[in-house]
Write a structure and sequence with these properties.
Length: 427
């Protein structure tokens, strides 16, 4: 049984700086994503299909598939504090260029390329902050600290999205719609500058790696493979990572389904602003679920243990998903969003602490690089499956059924009692 402290703040902790850097950056993420959604998916002249929506998701997620193998090099070789601070500053400058393109209504290769860079840098930042978290709190505080860091960040994305949508409506009274989107992008850049400033308050080695832990190996893919090899010695952590990838893939599929339903079915396709507002509301409800999921997780982990809690939370949303398959109404979508957000965050927070508690700091950057790229692969897979199944209307019986089957199969198979437990590290 794992016992966790419910309040991870104590004297001399640097946790507030990690939280500030993460939360301010992820509020910027939400603002930035709302501007991109308005510009690409919810503009009057661009009606999205499942394929176009999935393509937009893939563009956002592809960068880490490319730079992920090299993230471990930075995070285990160079100061994570400096990596986070400099990366945020670079990301702010990239958004300035994106704002110029958006203001001139350009949607071509250059915009795609810059968006790829911006989101690729984002994954490096989040992996660095996650890898450094165990150095600023005690081990029995990891679940609570992750609940604050990950959940606050996720809620920050939702809040940022709401801010972006609200300001977009205000700017539209005075400017052309694309120029309004560009102004929203600039606001996101200010959030990244703020995140960089907060990260600069940390000491060079506060979030690792220590001098004696710095790796001298070369080769990004080699280090990613090393992360996998390390995880093979901790099979329960590896199974937890694969489970998180599966959960995020299903969440992505439901998100695309909800986007299309709100854009093309629940609201008139000729009124994209109404669709965007309702989709933002659904995401807001999911954000509430995320917050509650993180709040209750430390209590239930104390009762069930990490492994059983992950297993329960993966399978828990399936009854509602089955209802949604045969009764696709907006209120059902909102309910599913709430519970999938709640259960998904419970899985993520618990597994983050599981991985952090078992992997020593000298290997943690490589392991979290593997963790993030595996989760990313699950998200992209969910987007591709949704694109192949969903019609433009977003209505589908097959997709919720498929996600439910995958969740239950993973819970009963990959996470079965005989395999998913704290095992002695393999030699």
């Amino acid at each position: 049984m794992v016992h966790t402290k419910l309040w991870p703040f104590h004297r001399n902790t640097r946790l507030p700086e990690i939280l500030g850097a993460r939360w301010s950056g992820q509020i910027g993420d939400g603002i930035f994503q709302s501007a991109l959604a308005s510009f690409v998916l919810f503009s009057p002249e661009r009606q999205p299909s499942a394929v176009s929506a999935a393509t937009a998701f893939t563009v956002v997620l592809l960068p880490y598939s490319l730079i992920g193998p090299y993230a471990g090099i930075f995070l285990d070789r160079f100061s994570r504090q400096r990596t986070v601070a400099i990366a945020n500053a670079i990301r702010a400058f990239v958004l300035l260029a994106i704002a110029l393109l958006v203001s001139s209504s350009q949607t071509g290769v250059w915009l795609t390329f810059l968006v790829l860079i911006a989101f690729g840098i984002n994954r490096l930042i989040l992996a660095g902050l996650s890898a450094g978290l165990p150095l600023v709190v005690h081990q029995d505080e990891l679940i609570s600290a992750n609940a604050l860091a990950v959940t606050g960040g996720s809620i920050g994305v939702v809040i940022g999205g709401g801010i972006g949508i609200g300001l977009k409506k205000v700017f539209d009274f005075h400017h052309a719609t694309d120029f309004s989107d560009a102004l929203v992008v600039l606001l996101a850049a200010l959030c990244y500058i703020s995140s960089s400033a907060v990260a600069s308050r940390l000491g060079k080695s506060d979030i690792g790696p220590a001098e004696h832990e710095i790796t001298k190996d070369r080769g990004g893919w080699r280090e990613l493979r090393e992360g996998f090899v390390i995880l093979r010695r901790h099979p329960d952590a590896l199974r937890g990572i694969l489970t998180t990838a599966v959960q995020r893939g299903g969440l992505t599929a439901f998100t695309l389904m909800g986007l299309l339903l709100e854009r093309n079915t629940f609201n008139p396709p000729t009124k994209p602003d109404a669709g965007l507002a309702r989709f933002a509301f659904v995401l807001g409800v999911a954000g509430v679920g995320i917050g509650i999921g993180s709040f209750i997780t430390p209590f239930f982990v104390n009762y069930f243990g990490r492994h059983r809690w992950i297993r329960i939370m993966l399978a828990a949303p399936t009854p509602l998903a089955l209802i949604f398959a045969f009764y696709p109404r907006e209120w059902v979508l909102i309910t599913v969003a709430f519970f999938v957000g709640l259960c998904g965050q419970a899985v993520k927070v618990t597994n983050d602490a599981l991985v952090q508690s078992q992997i020593s700091d000298e290997f943690r950057g490589r392991v979290f690089a593997f963790y993030d790229i595996t989760t990313n692969a699950g998200i992209v897979s969910g987007a591709i499956i949704a694109a192949l199944i969903l019609p433009t209307s977003g209505k589908s019986v097959l997709l919720p059924l498929l996600v439910s089957v995958i969740y239950v199969t993973t819970s009963l198979g990959l996470l079965r009692n005989s395999k998913f437990f704290i095992a002695r590290p393999l030699e």
